[in-house]
Design goal:
The structure is a homotetramer. Chain A is an alpha+beta fold. Helices cover about 25% and strands about 25% of the residues of chain A. The longest helix of chain A has 22 residues. At the A-B interface, strand 3, helix 1 and helix 2 of A face strand 3, helix 1 and helix 2 of B.
Chain lengths: ~375, ~375, ~375, ~375
């Protein structure tokens, strides 16, 4: 079997100097749950409305304590390049509160997933006093090269399935959930995750990242600084996108148990750019590079009364620096994991998006001094 | 008939010193089309999924020349308070381009309308080279006090109907389209519009505004500076919302034929706050006060080649000041028109949202020196 | 004496429905100190470098506990129109921390005041561990119509004097400190202040505002909704600026003891627009309408360690609404106070900026139903 | 002489795949002029007010056609981390116009340079109608480790000297002008520059970058992806800053002759993050990472009348992608040039900031496959 996929660290690739959490996943942040619903149907020629379908939905729950509307967490948003959609951002920008789970899907299905999240919330949770309305957070990247995106195959039940399937523990990566039909640096892309845990001296906080990676040109790909994309040319692995301008998007979700305020979450979100830049993301014009960071370290922000403020915790400004490093490194490694774990997928009109070949990758890394020199 | 509605100017109320355009509507900006689809169904007790339904969709086309994706206009966004949703903003913030029509509906139906706009665009327009994807612009305000909002009664066909019905000429106001179930300052609210035309010396430009008004407390309402809300108390006209905190939202769409760049559109959008503030909007916490301004004065922004820039026009900074005045005044009057034109509506559980009583309004205006003193 | 000035409330003008604090001043927020240094020198023709000089510096201390660098408060910034300067904003936007006092002066003296604040901080405070650097906050409006602004008459000692003179208690208003040479709605403007205190049920919080008002056209002036500027024409009080486009700026400082986070301060700052709009500010192109809000309700934000977060307090989103009303109303009244308290000033080339005539003002208010009708 | 400095390309280091302009400097953008004033005075122990002094001022003129106030260019600003100061940004954010030259100096001297720029403008230029005021752009990084920063040694005449000395042609790099006392990745830092020229097919546009680099930890330094900072340890080159947290700032000025609008300039500014991230910048908490981009491709933006718009040019969205690549690559190389060109400097209290040793650098690059493998 040539397509045995491995995560970056299993290949000897380590990003940065900080240690990952036990799962090296966003779920290392306590309480976070991730669920995927993968939709694969049909083969052959595109018939809009029929398929082939290579898409899905991924849901990230910021905690395991029921309704996020009732029990929100602080969050902050940043966009490197805004050629994409993430609903719910106006309220996050205003209040600093994430009041829903975060769903990620394909570009044409943002709406159906968004409305379904309103229905889901009403169906699944019991409220003392139900909120009048919800403003769900749904991001997207475009999978129309492999999937019948204009057939609108994602239905409310797919959001329900992904949300219900969400669990803590290891996270499936690669061609799953929202990442099913995605490409990255002209290899197969999709879902990736990673985490970092700071030393006790620096607070012992965990930062976890999950990406849906669907961006980038072959030539720009660098892994731990090595120009992998220049070394594994189109002669070795055909580029599925040589026929057109290579754009595409990446959604990056960052989570931490460090008790951060909304502004501090926004600062964390902005550091996703650092990790993305090191892998080769330029925020191309056609790309929606949308980043959302949240902190699970404070809760109860709907609980206070005007005359009885609630109490929360925060960290002094200088404590942000190691969190920035953790966020940048975990973002970088999450993208590399997406590339290393994604399997080759054939979709619409027989088009094939090829997985990054791992043996060649290791060979290139060795030629550029990785493994052979002082680290 | 007690409920003969009239626009503000027909009642002797004039806002500001600038002249409106011939229609005193957003359609005074050449090429703009507005369409409403109103959905009214059922009476009596709320049965989620069945009704009663008092909702709809309103669509504003920035021009009459086909696909906005292919032929975008410059636009800019501002939010006074972000407790609301407007999809498509990430791309407007990034590129300065409005690449779709603007739809307005209820809070729970943003998603279905958004995805339907993607389908509509593919169904109705023929492209030389179809864009890979669309990022439609859909705003919302909450009509759940009068309508079965969680019944998801808006369907793709309603978006199609509103988009197809769009026309230049006079614009229906009040309890129509997206404004069907809305309240404003604890009277019946909904759709309102107004415009201003600058003198030839100031460029002769037109600024048009359309609002979907669903915000505000009774006490805060002022019309042309007169404290109408304090004068027409709950004893005279019952407040439909006394039972709860009064929040709610307002979407303000501003359009001009002045040839503005995206940054300049953003400046115009920010001035919607001025008009809203004068009527009594405070941007309450629960309100989504989302403003979008666009300029029809430049076109062809997808047409250039990297080495062959396209040519556009703009105005010097100082020329913005009269446009700001026009935008603020037209926004103020559009809200007053929504109030004056909206008819009393009874919806869910027999709740009634009462129209602003026009005779009493005129009486109050007179007592506060309007009509009697030097203008 | 024709020029006996009175504050708005002494003239029977009350803005909004909330009660002011005991001083009706920003100093109603406990700990806040305000100091003015007024520089008036010379008469007659302008000789750049010599005078006449009509300028000054105003300093607002967010607390009375020494170095703000060591003991910052949360803050947030908003600009309605950015034709102005406020230094130190990049760091406030980033960290949410106000780490210096706030100084306001004329446009050409921002630099000298800013650097002097660095020196002052080192001279006046003893640090356990001195910060490497300071990023002082200095705002400005333009007084070049009355003063030899290009003569650079503000010197470091003036900042020292204003900072040292700062005190709690009543605040001098009108043609003092940074407001000495300012105009507002084509009357004499300058410094104004006001406050609101919420009921115990709403938390009992105080919101205080201080403005340096130097903006606006005569025709646009409204006081409590009454079109005062249209009623007191140039025939009654000459307009000092009819010779040119009327622009100019306003700095609005908002303070509260409500325990707000940086994002919440930013929301408060944005509401300054509401009050300004109601008086007649449009954010004209030439205007620097820059607003800074801070909260004294949390302290100790430099004190935590990465592993030992500090504890702060905040309010739930819904508690913001009454604070918004307080901020808007206090901003409106602070501007009216600046107008009512400013005395006529003659400066460069014998130009005279006339005070708003208070008897005429009261007469106009009466004609428009104020005092005579139900409030 | 051991300290023969060379630029990166002279050492065989090339960043990215695009070609630089003839000078590989920001001055490859036609019309741009750069001037430095370097202030070096005294040795030995720090006596505040006396020295030693290792500081200066660097001025970038966006064109060679006189007053920038009268003849502005479009510009956009972005900050990765806001622990720094750049004056004049409120107006750039508002209007999209850069209306002054750009000066860079030390943190404590921003004010004096800013006010001096107002005086300079009045002294050097003749106006038909002089603008009422100026809002100069002055950025800073902190040189207090090597220089008596709190002695305020920069005077107005230093700004005059740097502004007058500005010239097109090659740009002095390293320990000069504003960069005299700066450190970068715990080596000596300062001024660096680079450029890229797009192919004729992509428009033939030039993007130039100038940095004042004063940020970063040793361990994080990467040059063309090679972990140079990990390889050249403190045992080989002492770290001047091991005694404290390593923060610091970087100002990045980006210029292009591509005819971009303000929004598009902002997009270019945001890409400075990409280049900075690849060298090892994380936007640490203590860092002011402030980026300003401008376009010389449009002029005459003060010239229009309200009724007679001026004409400008722009590029379609897709044309931005190659400009982004150029901006990121030139920013990366400009930083590397700063490191490669800066000479060892000894300052306050005998502290020495060591230059990056170029032979060791080349040795490390070779060990990591650069020069030996397919590029």
């Amino acid at each position: 079997m040539t397509d045995q996929r491995k995560r970056a660290r299993a290949l000897g690739i380590t990003i940065g100097r900080l240690e990952p959490g036990p799962l090296n996943a966003i779920t290392d942040v306590a309480g976070i749950k991730v669920g995927h619903e993968t939709i694969i149907r049909g083969d052959g020629d595109l018939v809009v409305g029929q398929g082939p379908v290579r898409t899905g939905v991924t849901v990230v729950w910021p905690h395991s304590d029921g309704s996020v509307a009732q029990n929100p967490v602080y969050a902050g948003y940043h966009q490197l390049n805004g050629n994409g959609e993430m609903t719910g951002i106006a309220w996050i920008d205003e209040s600093g509160l994430l009041t829903s789970a975060v769903a990620i899907t394909n570009t044409a299905s943002v709406g159906v997933v968004r409305d379904a999240m309103i229905a889901y919330d009403r169906d699944r949770f019991v409220y003392e006093r139900e909120p009048d309305f919800h403003l769900p957070v749904v991001g997207e990247t475009y999978d129309g090269w492999l999937s019948d995106i204009n057939g609108f195959h994602v239905r409310p039940e797919h959001l329900y399935a992904a949300a219900d399937a969400a669990a803590s523990g290891p996270v499936a990566e690669g061609s799953v959930g929202g990442g099913t039909g995605m490409n990255c640096h002209e290899f197969k892309g999709g879902i990736g995750t990673s985490s970092r845990r700071l030393s006790a001296e620096l607070g012992g906080w965990t930062v976890g990242v999950l990406v849906q990676a669907n961006y980038g040109s072959r030539h720009a790909l660098r892994i731990d600084g090595v120009p992998v994309g220049r070394e594994i040319g189109f002669d070795q692995v055909p580029s599925h996108l040589q026929e057109r301008i290579v754009d595409g998007s990446i959604i990056i979700i960052l989570a931490t148990d460090a008790p951060l305020l909304p502004d501090q979450c926004r600062r964390i979100a902005r550091r996703a750019t650092i990790g993305l830049a090191r892998v080769g993301g330029n925020g191309n014009n056609g790309s929606g590079d949308l980043f959302l960071a949240f902190s699970t370290g404070n809760r109860g922000m709907m609980a206070g009364e005007p005359g009885a403020p609630f109490t929360i915790r925060s960290l002094p400004p200088d404590a942000m620096t190691p969190l920035f490093e953790a966020a940048a490194d975990a973002a970088e490694e999450a993208i590399v994991n997406a590339l290393c774990m994604a399997t080759t997928v054939t979709g619409v009109n027989g088009r094939t998006s090829h997985a990054l070949p791992l043996e060649q990758l290791q060979d290139v890394m060795g030629r550029y001094g990785r493994g052979a020199v002082r680290r």
